[in-house]
Amino acid sequence: MIVLGRIVAPFGVRGWVRVLPFGDDPLAWGEMPQWWLAPTEDAIDTDWKTYGVRECREHGNSLIAQLESVTDRNAAEALKGHYIAAPRDVLPATESDEYYWADLIGLEVLNTSGEALGTVEGLLTTGAHDVLRVVDGETERLIPFVAAYTLDVNQATRTITVDWQKDW
I need a labelling partner for 120 at 20 to 30 A (CA). Which of 46, 144, 150, 152 fits? Predict the structure, then answer.
């Protein structure tokens, strides 16, 4: 399963939920007829429960959605904190310079001098852009995931090349 976002709160009294999307184009996956929800992002496949999507739209920097069988605020409140995911085969295809976060996690990060900076452990959304969380033992680096610093993502070699110094 590819985790796409998280339900952060109920929205209104008719069962709508507010969703924090992970990534740039949440309306693309907002058009899927169903979502898979689980209380943890690393749930096994059989723990993900499907919900039909009645409606989904942008609301500020988040989404609001109405899911089938979630008809009131209490039902929406029960889903607070749940993760939203989908199997890879139902997700929209990405362009050549687009990636699902799950595709980046675990890639080795090298700088332009060939020095290993660590492995991508996760991504953060800052509002302006996403940030790679790169971990090398006890060292954690936060590297903006923008063209000025991220020069190449090579999924075949499982590496990301960045314009970032090891001592930064």
Answer: 46
